[in-house]
Amino acid sequence: MSKPQPQQQTPPFPNKYHVKLVSSSDSKACIICYKPSTTVLLADGNGDFFYVCPGHLLDEQFASPIHPQEYSDLISSQKELTDKKAKLEKDLEMEKPYIWNTVAGYWKDKKEKGEETKYDKLKKELGEVTKGLEDKTKSVNGYKFKLYKLHQDIYKGRIMAHQKKVYSVQRATKIQQEGFFPSVPSHNLE
Ligand SMILES: [Zn+2]
C-alpha cells in the first residue's frame, strides 16, 4: 500500500473558475435554479465543474469576477476620462461669464476671422471626452469576465460535495473488496 497521506490542508481545487460554454444540446440543469444552462464553471486544474445560468454570475452572493489586467486598465482609463470631463465642465463654466461679458464686437470679430474661442475649444474637447467616456463605459459594462471566484459559502459547498463524492467512491471500492464484510455463506441457507 502507498504511504499514509499527510493531512490535507490545501483544498482539492482552487476557488478560481473558468467560464466555459457548451452547445445547447449539451445544456444541463443549473445548480441554483435547475433551468437548463450552457454555461459551465470549471475550476482551475479541472478539479470541479458545474452548470449555472450566466445571470447568477452577476450575484455577488454567488460569485464575483476576477479582474484581469485588461479590465483594470479599462476602469482606470474610465476614471481618467471621468475626471477630465468634470474638469472640462468646470473650465467651461468659468468661461461662460467671460462670453457674456465680452464686448459683442470682439466676439463677432473672432467669429468672422474663424478663430476658435477658448469656450469653443473647451466645448469641442468636452464633446470628445464625453464620447470617449461613453465608449469606455460601454466596454466596462459589457466586459465578459472569463474567471470567477465563488462566494465563500458556495465554495465550501463545492468542496463538501467533492469530499462526499470521494468518500462514497472510496466506500464503494471498499465494499467491493473481499473481506470488508464477512462473506455470505453459500450454503446452509434456507
Ligand atoms: Zn439558474
Properties at a glance:
binds zinc ion, alpha+beta, five-stranded antiparallel β-sheet, two-stranded antiparallel sheet, about 190 residues, single chain, Vfa1, 2 domains, VPS4-associated protein 1
Write a short abstract of this structure.
This is VPS4-associated protein 1. It comes from Candida maltosa (strain Xu316). By secondary structure, this protein is an alpha+beta fold.
Topology:
Blueprint: E1 17-21, E2 28-29, E3 36-37, E4 39-43, E5 49-51, E6 63-65, H1 69-101, H2 104-112, H3 118-141, E7 147-150, H4 152-176
Antiparallel strand pairs: 1-4, 1-7, 2-3, 4-5, 6-7
Helix pairs in contact: 1-3
Protein name: VPS4-associated protein 1
Pfam family, one: Vfa1
GO cellular component, one term: endosome
Describe the main β-sheet briefly: 5 strands, antiparallel
Total number of strands:
7
Query: Considering DSSP H and I runs of 4 or more, what fraction of the residues is helical?
Result: 40-55%
Strand order of the largest sheet: 5-4-1-7-6
Strand content: 5-15%
InterPro entries: Vfa1
Pfam families: Vfa1
Protein name: VPS4-associated protein 1
Organism: Candida maltosa (strain Xu316) (Yeast)
Explain how this protein is built.
The chain starts with 16 loop residues before the first strand and ends in a 14-residue tail after the last helix. Helix 1 packs antiparallel against helix 3. By secondary structure, it is an alpha+beta fold. Strand 2 and strand 3 (36-37) form a beta hairpin. Strands 5-4-1-7-6 form a five-stranded antiparallel β-sheet. The longest helix is centred in the middle third of the chain and has 33 residues, at 69-101. It is built from four helices and seven strands, in the order ββββββαααβα. It has two domains: 17-66 and 145-175, no CATH class; 69-141. Zinc ion binds at residues 30, 32-33, 35, 53, 56.
